[in-house]
């Protein structure tokens, strides 16, 4: 099996969530000459699935074997740091790009922004945004906006939300995002104004939907939508599944009640015996 094929297999297994299988193929490849691409595929696969420690350990192993990292390697490592909240390590990797003679690209800046925003380093993230040698992208601003909302920095969220609207004035989600920020601050007039601004500019909010692939055919579903030709059967099955979930929850509650009663009887609690009689009836 060629190295290119092994790399493709590692990438495929990792993207499908079969991390163990990816590792088996990767380890088999180490018996012969490897390149940075197969290491990137494995490090990135581990990082994507939140296996942060394993991803960073693999990078250390890569350095020991003197495989030279490239821009993609550092992108994978920054992704791992974002999942693990490793701000210090992320800065180290970001700085290593320049030390290794590489230039950080837009994707590296976006990943670094994600690291800082997720970890709640929001002032640092905003300063990083303003000092970038390029204009911020919507994904960078979106990551910062999410971080601001999650960590309660609504003052900064408002600034970032306005920048997003300026950047993408016809994107419905940008207006909704800023409207939600105003709602969290209980500034209802501004929240309403955002919805009105959408109407004024002719921006329509597209409903969210899910797509399921069955036997090679894609089926699209929207909440409360009955346009699908088999919607009656689908909703029947959904009702059945919900009934089973409720039945399972009721059974668990009954088992817990019986357990509590038995414990009470064992402790000489007469009221537990009466409850047992009522429950039996």
Automatic annotation (TrEMBL):
Coiled coil start-end: none
GO molecular function, one term: RNA binding
Keywords assigned: Repeat
Record InterPro entries: E2_motif, E_motif, PPR_At4g14850-like_plant, PPR_rpt, TPR-like_helical_dom_sf
Gene3D superfamilies in the cross-refs: Tetratricopeptide repeat domain
Top-level lineage group: Eukaryota
Keyword hit for Repeat: yes
Biological process according to GO: RNA modification
PPR repeats: 35-69, 70-104
Protein name: Putative pentatricopeptide repeat-containing protein-like
Organism of derivation: Solanum chacoense
């Amino acid at each position: 099996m060629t190295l290119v094929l092994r790399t493709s297999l590692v990438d495929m297994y990792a993207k499908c969530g079969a991390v163990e299988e990816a590792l088996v193929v990767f380890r088999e490849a180490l018996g012969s000459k490897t390149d940075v691409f197969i290491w990137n595929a494995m490090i990135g696969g581990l990082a994507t699935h939140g296996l942060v420690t394993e991803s960073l350990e693999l990078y250390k192993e890569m350095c020991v074997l003197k495989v030279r990292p490239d821009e993609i390697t550092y992108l994978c490592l920054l992704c791992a740091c974002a999942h693990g909240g490793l701000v210090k390590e992320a800065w180290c990797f970001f700085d290593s790009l320049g030390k290794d003679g590489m230039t950080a690209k837009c994707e590296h800046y976006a990943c670094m922004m994600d690291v800082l925003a997720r970890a709640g380093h929001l002032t640092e993230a905003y300063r990083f945004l303003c000092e970038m040698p390029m204009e911020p992208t919507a994904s960078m601003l979106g990551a910062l906006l999410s971080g601001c909302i999650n960590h309660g920095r609504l003052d900064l969220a408002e600034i970032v939300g306005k920048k997003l609207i300026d950047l993408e004035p016809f994107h419905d989600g940008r207006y909704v995002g800023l409207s939600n920020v105003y709602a969290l601050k209980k500034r209802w007039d501004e929240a309403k104004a955002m919805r009105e601004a959408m109407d004024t500019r002719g921006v329509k909010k597209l409903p969210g939907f899910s797509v399921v692939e069955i036997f090679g055919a894609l089926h699209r579903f929207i909440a409360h939508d009955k346009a699908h030709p088999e919607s009656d059967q689908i909703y029947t099955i959904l009702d059945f599944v919900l009934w089973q979930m409720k039945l399972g929850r009721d059974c668990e509650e009954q088992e817990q009640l019986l357990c509590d009663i038995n414990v009470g009887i064992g402790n000489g609690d007469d009221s537990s015996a009466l409850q047992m009689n009522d429950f039996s009836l």
